[in-house]
């Protein structure tokens, strides 16, 4: 459905429901003439228009039409007409009886203005290179071409053309309707189509080396439809809703040419053997859902509420062959070597797969129940239970191995693991009003999690207390403190071994999202609003410490290190304030500021040869410190006579320090990272003048500045320098860039 | 550990109650004697009509015209969505709308603004009664649908009132009769930290007005966690990101458990709203030997190493949300 269809349908519905009386009509339009100038030295920035369009020229920023007659309403609204972020809606009905809304919302998402690549999109997700280029490199080197000549890499990129901006566009058309067939019944219907199209940067590779970033095409649709009915009784309310969501991807895979080879070949080693690579994409999928809710008023000012939902998610895409490399066959292998890792069959033939189509299914059962009461004097109490169970009913497939990066066969006994989990929560809370000025509250809870992972069971106990104090009508203080302890009951060491019984990861590992965790969290907030001044203060501290819990960190192998690895600690602090106050001559001032500070400690081991027995000499620990300062000031002149005006300035500043705080004696010459900074500033001014009751003029100006210093993303090269562990990567050069943009506009608002 | 927790909890609760009791005592000493409004207006409208002191008498309905004689500024209510719904759905004419919520106003009107007159305080002002009572007025009509989980929910238990977010008499927002111009500004009244977070360089298009807080959260209470519109964080994310829904042939377990393991949807300074920069993001878990646990440092960055710059680990493991390829168990195909 596109917007024209939506509009047409809406108008038909409007005419069908129209009453004969003459309608009242009201419409408004904001027309802007705008100029946008980029700093010439920094023209490539995309972030200024990341999710929006800032047009240069004349455009309609807003149009609104209201019609009303005999209790019926119809409203048409549109913003940024014909721009990349346009939106429109048509809504109306008879308030309280029937309503309908057709809407159209276009959201751009720009990724880069400067991506460069030689790949040409041939459609169907196939990205090609000129044959001559592939042939040149195939002839020049059969190993790593950059290793032999960085000049070749330069040649490879010499003719690279600018691609159209890497960007995605989301177009959502939706219709929502409600009507009341009876006084206590409400029926709702909704449907939508979300279409996404464009090009984004996608990583791909032909091995541990050879990362090649691709301008991958996007073309998918998500269709949603739902129908619900609610009973809105005085003391009982109930609802049921059924929905379906279907995702369709135009591309089942992305295929790209290998810049190092024109023709497929087989060797028994990794390397540039494939002339093309193929990577899977997000599969078509379907989700069907059913939800029911209930609320019942009970004696003693009590109430019971419940919610239950069931979702079935399925996916049946065609299974892709092991590889697109047509030379990886048993016959080719026999002719070359006859090693254990030779392909047992023609790997590119779908007939050799365990199934032609996938049969994947997950089911989610969610439940929530809560009993609450206000019948205990000043105490408001409630107890609740919630569970979320995800069952994996997918088919389990056995694969005799995998085609590594389309270049070689690796004999492995692989099965897709059917991950599933269940989370159950119980809590009880009580809030007590101690007089009119003080309220205290307490919550205790427990969460149980069972999952098909290395930690199969865990429990978390939590307790929190809160205090609200209102000593005066204009002063409000609140605070809360939470402690929580998560403990794992079991730790399955076997999950860290491969099929040969060898550890593939260190037993000492405890993943932060499942391991033992002590959490402490405190919050304080105050609000003081005497007269026209309003001041708010807030602070929050959260400290997570991750521990080892039960189990032997060595996995029973004494040569293994008895150490925790991974995320050890995470500490976040946030302090904020907000102030509004009157200024001279009727001006209103405002200010907000927030300071955030976070620290993460990660420990690991850089041993390049052993999988289980780590050497203390190669241990390392990194501390990442991030500080953010976000604030703004504003001055506003509310409408005074014919004039009104506003000034504002916003600043967002962040700094990341990533430092090596410990390194073993075997790690020499390593350097902490350069500081990474991002600073965003916006200064704006607006002035309005009411010419007549129908005409209003607006002038506005904004200055936007963004500065970034980031070792990873502010100047992404087109290719990497070679060396040990550095590889020969090719990127699109889609960097996050600085910008300085000035925007000036003059607007005419007209009320018809 | 468990014992320590219990001790901490008990100590914390005892301290909170102690402080509460102390503050109660202090506030009782400092507070002036209850005024007539604190006595009378703590009652709901219906109760106000029946529990008046004998000398005041029972208030009666007088109609909106009488109300507007003094409260002329509220005349705009006649054109509001609220007034239209009352008419169409409840058959309540405009002349009766004021007293539908505020209770019968004859004594209040007769007081003619004289606060010394006890009758002045017989009208119900939702802003001056307890949150429970203020909300009860609204829930008479708005109890079902999205409000099924309101009572006992986190907002209700924190004494948030309908008036905290909604402007009852006239719309200040384009939709939902909010007290602020936008949905986000309304939520920022209490959630000021989110106002700052969403301005970070990697954020949802909320600042640009292309989505709102209710795209993900249901402030009236929901069947899910964190007031999510769906049963879980992931289910909520799938409403727009259905490409991440799968199920995939190869699942990445922490991704399926919670998107929040890696992303902070309220905004971060790391691209893709990641909670920290890769490869450290991945090294929080992946400490196996060889390349996942290699100490990548500034010297790697200087040379454009593909495990550090640009997308770091995702330069190769680009299908980190799940792969559908038979050879994709490491999410590189």
In short:
The complex is a heterodimer of chains A (752) and B (333). Chain A contains five helices and 34 strands.
Write the SSE topology.
The complex is a heterodimer of chains A (752) and B (333).
Chain A: H1 3-17, E1 24-38, E2 57-69, E3 72-79, E4 87-94, E5 98-112, E6 116-117, E7 120-121, E8 126-128, H2 131-140, H3 145-148, H4 150-158, E9 161-162, E10 166-182, E11 185-202, E12 214-232, E13 236-249, E14 253-257, E15 276-280, E16 285-298, E17 302-315, H5 330-336, E18 360-376, E19 379-392, E20 398-404, E21 408-415, E22 421-434, E23 438-451, E24 457-472, E25 475-488, E26 516-528, E27 534-547, E28 566-582, E29 588-605, E30 619-640, E31 643-663, E32 676-690, E33 695-709, E34 739-751
Parallel strand pairs in A: 8-14
Antiparallel strand pairs in A: 1-2, 1-34, 2-3, 3-4, 4-5, 5-10, 6-9, 7-8, 10-11, 11-12, 12-13, 13-16, 14-15, 16-17, 17-18, 18-19, 19-22, 20-21, 22-23, 23-24, 24-25, 25-26, 26-27, 27-28, 28-29, 29-30, 30-31, 31-32, 32-33, 33-34
Chain B: H1 2-30, H2 36-40, H3 45-50, H4 64-70, H5 81-90, H6 94-102, H7 106-111, H8 131-142, H9 154-157, H10 162-165, H11 183-188, H12 192-197, H13 233-238, H14 253-257, H15 280-283, H16 298-302
Describe this structure in words.
The complex is a heterodimer of chains A (752) and B (333). Chain A is mainly β. Chain A is built from five helices and 34 strands. Chain A has a 26-stranded antiparallel barrel. In chain A, strands 7-8-14-15 form a four-stranded mixed beta sheet, with no helix packed on it. The longest helix of chain A has 15 residues. With 333 residues, chain B is mainly alpha-helical. Chain B is 37% helix and 0% strand. The longest helix of chain B is centred in the N-terminal third of the chain and has 29 residues. About 10% of the residues of chain B have low confidence. Classes of the chains: A mainly beta (752), B mainly alpha (333).
